[in-house]
Amino acid sequence: SIDGASVQLPPTVSERADRRREMAYDLERLTKAAEDNDLEAQYTLGLTLLASPSAYNRSLGASWSRKAAILGHAQAQFTLGSMLLETPQTHDEGWDWIVRAAENRCVEACNFLAREAMTGTRRRFAKWEDGLRWTKYAAEEGDVEAMYRLGAVMAAPGEDQEMEAAMSYLEKAGARGLGCDEAHHGKCAHTAAVFELGRCHWELSDPERALDCFYSAAKLGHCVAQWWVAEFLRTGFVSEEDEAMALRWYITAEEGGFADFQRDDSYFIGLRHLQGDGVPVDFEKAYLFFTRAGWRHPEALLQRARLLQDGLGVSEPQPSLAFKCLTAAAEQGHLEAIDAVTQCYLRGHGVERSHAKAMEWMLRSKKTWKASRIALVQQGTDSHPPRNLG
Predict the structure, then answer these.
(1) Which of 13, 128, 191, 301 is 20 to 30 A from 274 in CA distance terms?
(2) Structure confidence at residue 380 as a pLDDT band (50, 70, 90)
(3) What gap in Å lies between CA 176 and CA 104, rounded to an integer?
(4) Cα 315 to Cα 107, 150, 300, 309, 319, distances in angstroms
(5) Under DSSP, is residue 134 helix (H, G, I), strand (E, B) or coil?
């Protein structure tokens, strides 16, 4: 209390999620609460209706989302902005709503803008610094992914390296994962933060603490940490050599997707050359590393297709090969690649124009998105921006 008056603290993220799940089972009660200007009810009702197969219900859901957004609900602002992004006529308004949501400390909006800035997916924010700013906002709100990403960036070699701050963020992100389901640890930000902390200790010439971190991450399924543990055991750098145990860790790392990591590594190195992050902008090197990422990395395929379309990093524009890259990414379920393939068929870019083929890909885009949204709503989560289904 303050001066004898009781103060009601705002609900936490988990409390709001629990409330949305509870209300979603009773649309009538939810609608009544929304009509009584309950912001959380308005947002939850809008989100629930947006996942409906009915065009009328989706339109109604968009209206409730807009109302909650106007009244200041940050998550509703993000939802509304994400929908508006999908229509060219409302694209700029969509960005404004997402930025407003981020300024209101909506973690999903902050992470969305950070990813856009750091990957250049929509090319709205061209500077790496924009991504860092939004990442810091999300990290300040305690988001583990943001803390890990910020720590990894700060720890990267270069003039802007801030090792002490980086390790602080990574330690916090790693500690947040102690209560998580171990089955998912190998792919989550918590374990990645523990591994990245190990790399920091390695760079600071502290191999014992580095191995401790690598071993902790390895036991939780991080394939690159498993590879590092195998290397330590093979060489006997810290403890005695153990070839048999090293071989077991090498096999575990390979089974856990170490080859996929190598593809990711090539992709992010390509991004750094594309955006000039710590290195001069070099389209040829960017194209080379995106190519090294192979045909099973949708994001790398998308970036490679853009360079081919624009004739950057290659001798001349190659629309046919660009279309092949886009199709390969789309076949793996990448929504933006699916939309790009649709446009290629509509406009005849790199492929013969075909409205029938365009319609097939357009329908695939809707089915892919709707399946993911229904799963998210059933789980009571909403970590991905919704799309306008028209």
Answers:
(1) 191
(2) very low
(3) 23
(4) 42, 36, 19, 11, 13
(5) helix
Sign of CA dihedral 215, 219, 222, 226: positive
Q: Which residue has the higher pLDDT, 121 or 284?
A: 284
Q: What gap in Å lies between CA 369 and CA 216, rounded to an integer? A: 36
pLDDT interval class at 133 (50, 70, 90): confident
Alpha-carbon distance values, 26 to 31, 116, 140 (Å) = 9, 36, 35
How many CA within 13 A on the CB side of residue 259? 6
Predicted confidence band at 389 (pLDDT cuts at 50, 70, 90)? very low
Residue with tokens 């096999």: 251
Strand residues in 39-170 grouped as ranges (E): none
What is the H or E stretch that residue 39 is in?
helix 39-50
Mean pLDDT (the chain, rounded): 81
- Rounded distance between C-alpha atoms, residue 191 and residue 195, angstroms: 6
Cross-strand pairs, 5: 2
Give the closest residue to 313 by CA, choosing from 327, 321, 121. Answer: 321
pLDDT at 347: 92
Only one residue has tokens 């988990």, namely 14
Assign residue 315 a region: left if phi > 0, alpha if psi is -120 to 50, beta otherwise? alpha
pLDDT of residue 265: 75
Q: Which residues pair with 2 in a beta bridge?
A: 5
